[in-house]
Amino acid sequence: MVAVGVHVSIAGSIDRAVDRAQKLGCDTFQIFTKNPRGWRFKDLTPEQIEKFTKKIEKSGIYPPVAHVSYLPNLASPKDDVYSRSVDAFANEIARCSALKIPYLVTHLGSHLGTGMEKGFERIISAVNTAIDVTDIIRERRSRGGGGSVTILLENTAGTKNSMGGRFEDIGRIIDSVARDELVGVCFDTCHAFAAGYELRSAETLDATMARFDEAIGLDRLKLVHLNDSKGGLNSRFDRHEHIGMGYIGEDGFRVILHNDVIRKLPMILETPVDDRRDDVGNLRVARTLAEG
Q1: CB of 58 within 8 A of CB of 108?
Q2: What is residue 43's DSSP assignment?
Q3: Are 94 and 145 in contact (CB under 8 A)?
Q4: Strands of 4-6's sheet, edge to edge?
Q5: pLDDT tens digit sequence for 256-272
Q6: What pTM was estimated for this model as a whole?
Q7: Contact 228/247 with Cβ under 8 angstroms?
Q8: Which of 15, 92, 238, 241 is catalytic?
Q9: How far apart are the C-alpha atoms of 190 and 48, rounded to whole Å?
Q10: Which backbone phi and psi does 115 adopt, to 5 degrees?
Q11: Which of 7, 50, 197, 229 is the most buried (most CB within 10 A)?
């Protein structure tokens, strides 16, 4: 059996995300801990935290995963955007700690044409600063406890000016972070495929995993974003598709879901919801391909 889930809404109250995940039949799930399209947010109340954590315990769904919202750009050369991004990132880590969410996924952002080296400097500094700020926040809230959070850097599709399209780039960032024990990787199948990593046969997937191991280390791989791709191999086109309906295809996902490394990890589907298929349908297809 594989552990699969989807991204669910926190509308109404953050604890309702657990209810929605249960209704969909998730083994794991992903959320935004706040409105993903705004910088502002309200602190979580003790009541919200208690409701969420208790529902997680009762549900048996694990792990809950959070994703950093849309606005932060950890590689931005613009000082105002960068400062707000680092602050938002640190607060996301603190919120996950309070909610006992073990994984926080983040995109690495765009250097906006200033070059990869500048992007690396910004991201490494952002991660180091956010971890330090989070430690201070934890100390102030020590009476309320909290959980350990691993920051998961997500590989990208290699679009123009984006950071993290190559395994070696992610490895370089992790190696440069002061407290690298707090950093892991979320592997997105659509992004990897669009960035040029072949996944559709056992031989090519093994080769891709070997490259990952050499550049980063398989012990860093904590989570999979299981998405098909609307773009072809090395297209640099970041668009997710229903499982089996894109260029990776059913045969490709059958290979992926039988890989010894990947099938042991929690998997989050970020697939579309439209008249062709919904979240329940994609979960069903993923489980069928994993069992077949």
Answers
A1: no
A2: P
A3: no
A4: 4-6, 267-269, 221-225, 183-188, 150-154, 103-106, 64-67, 29-31
A5: 999 999 999 999 999 99
A6: 0.96
A7: yes
A8: 238
A9: 34
A10: 105, 155
A11: 229
